[in-house]
Structure formats: C-alpha cells, structure tokens
Protein: PAS domain S-box-containing protein
Amino acid sequence: MDNNRRLETEVAADRDQSAFGSLLDGLDKKFMIYKIDSEGLILDTNTRFLDKSGWTPKRVLGKPFKIMFPDTKDGKADLMKVWRRLRSLRPWQGDVLQVTKTGEPYWVSLTAIPVMSGTQHLYTLMIEADRTEERKLREKLESIAYTDPDTGLMNRHKLTEEAEQLIQTDRHFTFVYLAIENFHSLFDPGDKEAENRILSEFVHSMKVYFRNSRFARIGMNEFAVLTPLGSWFAEGFLQFLDEHPIQSDMTGIPVRVSGGIAKFPDDQQSFKHLLSASSIARHRAMRDGGGLITSLSKPEQRAVARRLRIEQKLPGALEEGAIQAFYQPQVDMTTGRIIAAEALVRWEDRDLGNVRPAELIPVAEDAGLISALGAHVIEAAARQAANWKQEGIGVPVSCNTSVREFRAGDMVTKIRDILTRTACPPSLLELEITEKFAFEAEAEGELMHQLKLLHDDGITFALDDFGTGYASFRYMQTVPIQKIKIGEEFIASFSTNEKVGRIVDGLVRFGHSLGLFVVAEGVEDEAVYQALSISGCDAVQGYHTGRPMPADQFTRLLREQALSEKN
Ligand code: G
Ligand code: G
Ligand code: MN
Structure:
C-alpha cells in the first residue's frame, strides 16, 4: 500500500469512528461489546463485556475471539459458523454460548457486524445481549415439555424426537410398546402414592432388564422402549417379570403386561409406522388374552405400511385430481333403461396401485380426510350429472356418504355450494346412507336436521346395503328415504339358497309397503336377474347390467340409450 492510500484509509477510519461514537455510547449502556480485527483478534471491549466475561483488558486484548467460545463440539461449530460469515464480510446474528475467563458458560444473543469503509474492512463489531436467564427458563420449560412428571421418563413428544434421530442416522433398533393391562386394578382409585409406587417399580424393572435403552411413558399405563436389543430379548421381558415380580410393601404385585414389537429398519421405516405396527401388535396381544409380547407378521407389517402410505398420499392425490369417480348403472327392471348412476371412488396410484374403496374409506375416516374425499367425489358426480343433463341424456347420480361427513357439521353448506358451483339441480343428486347411519341419525337431532334440510332442497336419499346392518326399522318412519338398496350379500346366494330367496322377496315387499323404490345390488347373472324380476324388484345394479366404469364410457351408454329411444 502506498502512502497516499494508507492516509485515505486512516481518514476514513477517523470519520467512521466519530460517526459511530454516539451510536456506540447508546449501545454501550445496554450491551456487551467488543471489536475484532480481520484476523479475529480482540481489539477493544467495553466495561460490560469485561464484567460479564471476567477478563481484564490487559489479558484479553490481542487474543483471538475464539477464547469466548467453549472448547466443545457445539462451541467450535458455533465459532466456525460465525467466523465463516464474518470472513466473507457479512453480518451474523444468533444465539451462542460463550464462556467467561474461568470457563463459566453464558448465553448471548450475538450480532456481529463487519464495519467497512468503502471496500476496506476496518473491524468487526461484536454486540452481545445476555440471554442466560431466558435460556435457563427455556431449558426448564423444555425439560417439563419433554418429561413425564410421574416417572421422569421421556414423554411421547421427546420419544418422537429421539426415535427420529436414530432413524435419520440409520441406527438399527427395536421399538417395544408395553402396557400394564390391569394397571387400574392394582391400586385404589385416587391413591396417587400407590400408583406412583407401582409406576416406579415397573420403570425400575424395565431399566434393569433393557440395558442401554431409552424409555418413554406414552400413556397412563403405556410405555415405549427404544433398544438396540433384538425382538427375542424384548419378548423375554415377561419371563423376567415372572421371575422378578415387582414389589410393593414387600408383596408381589401381579402386573399383567402385553406388548408389541417393531424393528427399524427391518419391519417399519418411520417413527409413525413403528408406533402404529407395535401398537396394533400390542392390541392383538391383549385381545388374545394378554400376557404376551409379540410382533406382526411380514404381511401384516406390509399392510400397516401400506395403510400409512395411503394416509400420507391421500391429501396430495385429492389435490392433484388423481382420485376419480367411476359410475355404475342402475337399470329399471321393467323398461331395461338406465335410470341412475352410482358414483364410486377410484384411485390408481403409481406406487400404491389400485387403492380399493374398502381400503381407502376407513383410512380416510381415521385420518379425518373423509369429508374432503367425499366432497371431491360428490363434486365430480354433480358436475357429471349437470353435463349429462345439458346433453339431454340426464340421469341422477347417487353418492355414498359416511356419517362422519355429516358429523363434521358443514355438510349442508358444502353440498349446496357444490350444487351451485356445478349447476347441478338437487333433484339429480341422491345420497346413499347406510343403515348404521340411519340408525344413528334417528337418535341424533343434529344429523336428522341436516338430512331434512337437504331433503327439503330436493335431494333424495337411498338406504345402502339394506338388510345387512341393524334389525331396527324405527328409523324408517323418520329418516327421509325414497329408495332401498338390497345388499349384494343377499343377492349373491339369492337364486341358489331358498331361504335367502324368501328373505329377498320379503325385503322387496317390505320396501314397497313403505312406498319405497327397491334396487338390488350385486346382480351378477341372468338367473338372479330373473328371480328378482319375479320378486317385483324395481331396479338392479351389478356386473350383469354394467360394471363401474369411467365417466366417458358411461356417457356412451347414455347416448346409445337416447338414440335407441328416438328410433
Ligand atoms: O367399489 P367398491 O365395491 O370397492 O366399494 C366398496 C365400498 O366403498 C362400498 O360400500 C361403497 O359404498 C364405498 N364407497 C365407494 N365410493 C365411496 C365414496 O365416495 N364415499 C364413501 N363414503 N364410500 C364410498
Ligand atoms: O356398499 P355399496 O353398495 O356402495 O357398494 C357397491 C359396490 O359393489 C361397488 O363398489 C361395486 O364395485 C360393487 N359391485 C357392483 N356390482 C357388483 C356385482 O355384481 N358383484 C359384486 N360382487 N360386487 C359388485
Ligand atoms: Mn352404495
């Protein structure tokens, strides 16, 4: 650097100094401040910094600022983060742990600002606010948030984090779900002391048996163990409990334990899956009489994994329009005309393959997605019905519903919105409800109210799977139904089983006596068709008269029908 240039920088530095002067005065009162040069050496400090850090100016000036960071892995990582940023002359802000001269840790919120004069780096200002109290409070809150107060074990929240950490670092482990089945019969209700004694004894047994493992309490009487030990070892815990019964007041306590095991990564590959698979195994163990720790078979493990994959992919599939409605014709027995289309949900996924409704609907219900799924199908069906009407080949569409969609509360608004949006008249929409649904609606004013409102709008209702549910017909008087659909369970053995034949005859007559339209479902061949015809059944739906099919195929059928009627 020539003389002129040096002079320029010094002048700039002076100007800078004075500009900062008053600003620094203000900061000085509130913050710990020091300056470092471009090598990271400490140039200057204020008094607050010296008070907190325990350094004297004589000792600290000229030392590398890395002395402020603890000599630990985290400390070094923090230091590197800050330093890398400052070396590229960009400011850094964040919370870091610092140490005093004698090694006492304290938290600060650090703002590090490289001060420039033009392109020249003058120094870096390190401004720190003490965060130790906040940190202490936060750590205390975290420990409360992470531990079960009765046992001191981790809670479910912390367990999730721990397990996910193991999974991320690809560490093999066994997930053991344990439950004391007879927990509540082991002490008098309200005897908190006895309850805690039993808990602590049980926890002690777990800790003695499962070495090098992590334990969590995940329910009143439920625990989880993350252990590197194998499943055969986990199963042995029951024998250990037999041989070393847990004690209270010198007497053995007859705990009955059941459990489920799932291994990472052999059985399941995520925490949710491990929890689900082990919980299902545990419930089955309990159902089979308890006193058993067991795991699911390979096919069952796969079923759990598939179920959760369905749950995970469903929202995306709904958004992308991967879920469609297929349509199956209902055919009038006297005229042979298609008089309605039942909309049936279909989902073909690249990984999952064909997700059948029987699989999909229960998952959607459990995952709280049934309303979204139902609305999606109803909207597609209503739009289709409006199109057919426009073309002059209109038939009503019939949509399946789940009682949970109505329990969500806004079903009426939702359906009205759909009909408005799709320009589908209410008379072209039929909703199928199950007997179970009708039975519950009869007792629940809120459900009944919704059915009535929709019925008043002109929407019709069909009772699906009739005869297979509840042998209670009281709802027939109050629930607004216009149609019954006799379930395929009956129809399948109709022509071969005389008793079933008489039941179907009876169901048809029963329906007619109430003035209802009767449809038979699952009609697969001519013999059944003929027998139903003799019974006086009004319409059929089944493979014999048409399988569920995509909309365009159904449209062709309707066009052909319209053509043949013109001729
Ligand atoms: O098409 P499939 O036979 O696989 O249908 C099985 C079951 O799924 C049937 O009982 C049918 O009522 C139900 N289902 C089909 N589509 C829907 C739908 O969109 N919503 C609801 N809630 N159930 C449906
Ligand atoms: O429960 P619900 O009635 O909504 O179920 C109708 C289901 O029955 C449809 O999913 C359809 O796939 C199926 N289905 C339709 N026709 C036949 C048939 O002729 N035989 C059998 N086994 N199933 C049928
Ligand atoms: Mn149906």
Notes: The mean pLDDT is 91. The two ends are 102 Å apart (CA to CA). The longest strand covers residues 105-117.
